[in-house]
Amino acid sequence: MDLRSEKKQIYIDKEALAVLEMLQEGILSPVLSLMDKDQGEEVMKSGMFEGVSFPSPLIFSPNGKKNLEVITHLQKGEEVQLCLGSKRVGRLWVENIFKIDREERIRRIVGGDLGHQDCARVSQRVGEYGISGSFSVEGSGIIPQNKRRILEKIKELDAKRVCGVMLNVNPIHMVHEKILQEALLKHDLLVVFVPHHNEWFLPFSLRFKSLEYVINHFLPSHKIVIAPLEYTYLLSGSNRMILNALICKNYGCTDFIASLGSSDLSTFVEGDRTCTIIDSIQGVDLSIQLMSEYVYCKMCNTIKSTKICPHGKHQHISYDSKNFFEMLKLGLMPPEIFMRKEVSAMILTYLFPNQARRLNKLYSDLITHEGIVHDEEENFYEALSRLYHVK
Ligand SMILES: [Zn+2]
Questions:
Q1: What's the 178 CA to ligand 1 centre distance in angstroms?
Q2: Is 155 in the same domain as 198?
Q3: Residue that terminates a domain, selected from 295, 311, 342
């Protein structure tokens, strides 16, 4: 093989590939290509791109020693291969190479706070040089698939008001369900975006499966599309909300719902008014609604919006997925007012494989001649939860 004809290679990771695929598919429109130095500086200054809020410059700046060596020797017009591990996933035609202010770039990606939990992840990925130029990549194919499914549904339902909502469902609880119900009341179609992220407590497949279960059994599933989203460091910190809104818009949504309980809203006070990052979004042709925070009120004995419950905070229990997950990790089933028993059952089965069989032996000895497990393990937990109601 003639090595001189071998193209140089730049190594990227899955998250960078996801960003490139988003760009290629127009999901971050009006940003449709990698920014060059001037465009990047303009976004740094104004937080806008072509009249639309855009939180941080979209610059291709792969990190790593090998990459640095390659990047500093690239020529204008040169074609490089983009590789994910040993796999070639795309090509890039170099237009310009420019030095970037790494620290400032990291700060902008996480939304200004260098102490943010996402900082380390972002820092690993940002290199010292930016490369602009056209490119083509072969990504996971999730985006074209989502676009097709959403468009088909819009046509099928003749949907005029399409609402997007981002949910990690990690795990899905009753307030999530409440948010989906409210959204369905006001819109013809609901698109639930679920980020593909495996560093969270529950794997994507289980989060997806439990959401699908709730939608198929307790909501009008024909009016809902679940759209997986590739997770990327671009969606870090408080910038996430702005980009989420943009992503919804570009997938064809007319409305976007953000929950006031979300930590991504970065609440701040302006004069005597409490504002969130949503208030600062400009130029995105999308109706953005802020849903009030829901809690369980011990006095009302139900799920209530904090806006209309007359009882004080000390009567409220907030819905925090992390707490429910901690309970499940201890083998405890959260009460049904927090999480559906079917969902708890799925998660317990995942956390304690084979446990149901052992417990069933105990129960069959103690309570019944037949036992309460018949086929699948998940049924055991559901059967057990029914026994809690027996007096
Ligand atoms: Zn109350």
A1: 17
A2: yes
A3: 295
- Average pLDDT estimate for 292-319: 89
Question: What separation in Å is there between the alpha carbon of 177 and the centre of ligand 1?
Answer: 19
CB of 244 closer than 8 Å to CB of 380 = no
Phi, psi dihedrals of residue 269, rounded to the nearest 5°: -110, 130
Please state the separation of Cα 254 from the chain's center in Å. 19
For residue 302, report the distance from its CA to the centre of ligand 1, in Å: 8
Determine the distance separating the centroid of ligand 1 and the alpha carbon of 170, expressed in angstroms: 26
State the residue range of the domain holding 281. Answer: 142-295
Do 49 and 97 reside in the same domain of the chain? Answer: yes
Tell me whether residue 173 is in a domain. yes
Task: Compute the distance from residue 324 Cα to the ligand 1 centre, in Å.
Answer: 21
Could you tell me if residue 366 is inside a domain?
Answer: no
Please check whether residues 190 and 267 belong to one and the same domain: yes
Q: Residue 223 in 3-state DSSP?
A: helix
Helix (H, G, I), strand (E, B) or coil at 374: coil
The answer to whether residues 285 and 149 belong to one domain is: yes
First to last CA, the chain: 79
- What integer pLDDT is reported at residue 72 of this predicted model? 92
Question: How confident is the model over 308-356, as pLDDT tens digits?
Answer: 999 999 999 888 888 888 989 998 888 888 999 899 989 998 998 877 6
Cα of 269 vs centre of ligand 1, distance in Å, is 26
Cα–Cα distance measured from residue 210 to residue 3, given in angstroms and rounded to the nearest whole number: 51
**Gap from CA of 304 to ligand 1 centroid (Å):** 7
Dist. CA 210–CA 350, nearest whole Å: 12
The tokens describing 22, both together, are: 């988003």
- Please identify, among 295, 330, 357, the residue that sits at the C-terminal boundary of a domain: 295
Q: Residue 172 has which token pair?
A: 């899905």
In a domain, 308, yes or no: no
- Residues 197, 270 within the same domain: yes
CATH number of the domain enclosing 45? 3.10.400.10
Residue 316 resides in a domain: no
Q: How far is the CA of 309 from the centre of ligand 1 (A)?
A: 4
Q: Which residues have C-beta within 8 Å of that of residue 319, sequence separation ≥ 6?
A: 173, 174, 175, 261, 294, 295, 296, 338
The one-letter code for the residue type at 229 is L
In the chain, what is the greatest distance between 2 CA atoms, to the nearest angstrom? 81
